[in-house]
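Can't paste images in this forum, so I'm doing it all in text. The chain is below; anyone willing to post the predicted structure tokens underneath?
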Amino acid sequence: MIRTVWDLRSFLEHHAPDQPEYHQAVLAWFDHIKDDLDDDHLKDGLIERMITPDRIISFKVVWRDDRGRARLNRAWRVQHSQTIGPYKGGLRFHPHVNASVLKFLAFEQTAKNILTGLFLGGAKGGMDIDPRELSMGEQERVCTAFMTELHKYIGQYTDIPAGDIGVDAGMISTLQKTFSQVTGRFDGTLTGKWVCAGGSQGRDEATGYGCVYFLRHVLDDHHDDLEGKAVAISGAGNVATHAAEKALALGAKVISLSNSVGTLHSPKGLSPEDLERTKHNRLEQLELKNATFHKGQTPWSLPCDIAMPCATQNELDHEDAKALSQGPCRVIVEGANMPLTDQATEYCKDAGLVIAPGKAANAGGVAVSGLERAQNTTGKPWSRQHVDQALQDVMTEIHERCTRHIHRSGGRYDYSRGADRSAFRQWSTVLMTQGV
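Text version of the structure:
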């Protein structure tokens, strides 16, 4: 029975050895909710049940490259919890995908989905492949081979995948085509499709826009606003560029984007035209009048008011946290999932920085995926304005859930603690009501 953090560490080391990302997510969550535990939670092994996935599906994907050679990749679907609805979570195609990463993402996804107020469970899946190294034909064959196996375990009332890193709307549409061909069904099983293929208006923008909508609430809590704020953003993908787009539209000054090679820095701020060019070109290849590319650097030493890590997990470490805290930065918004290391999180909190956690701030993507499923079910598409208003409403509700069960300390909210406590209370209540 897990009663203390030492019990939890022992459980993880025995049942999930060599899975550091998963350990990191679960231990941070337990630290936030441990004061809410009582005998009713403990007597039926509630913590063990909450942190253990319902199932992990592991399978091989065999496909042929453009030279006709058979290629092999590993793939997984982690179905973490179906407590309050069908499993819901993205598919990630990246060479570093493994069981530990997907278990952490699926666990975080469960809490995130609860915070949206939608009746969705949590899952995550993916494959250890880099789609950027594939031709269009190879991407199609990979998606076809992947879905030929995955279709056995998903459905609009059981498990609803979407896109994630490395899986864009075009690939989701290919996955949907294969799913329909194999099953004979077209429904809301996959979300994040092209609009012309049954996708939702505003889905591409949803995660990045949602981050900025959540940021507005955080600034409002601290009697501030976005106007004129210098925002440092990492990443150059869907989340980063759309967060930059919305921040610019609301009066902020976006001073950076980044990729695996380095950081694009614009002290005076990127223009909307600059930003549009970053969506279609690699950052290191751009020639912009007011921006310079710095090879091998991250954005976190740049003087900024707000930092938005939007690339990947554990991208912002202890040294980055030191650099941020020594400047004017006072707010960090996690556009990626768990982008701060444990040491960076503790340092930033001790330095007085406010952290908006990914499970709250970047929940806009899954929220609009849920709305896409509703549109597919009714066969009636919604306008972009309708979707955007619904997204704003969801982000407002998430913010209220994050602040409902915590009090200000030193004039600040601990949004991470509030998010975990809010999700835990609903999740544990349902589990105890259902029994075993």
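Residues 62 and 72 are 5 Å apart (CA to CA). The two ends are 15 Å apart (CA to CA).
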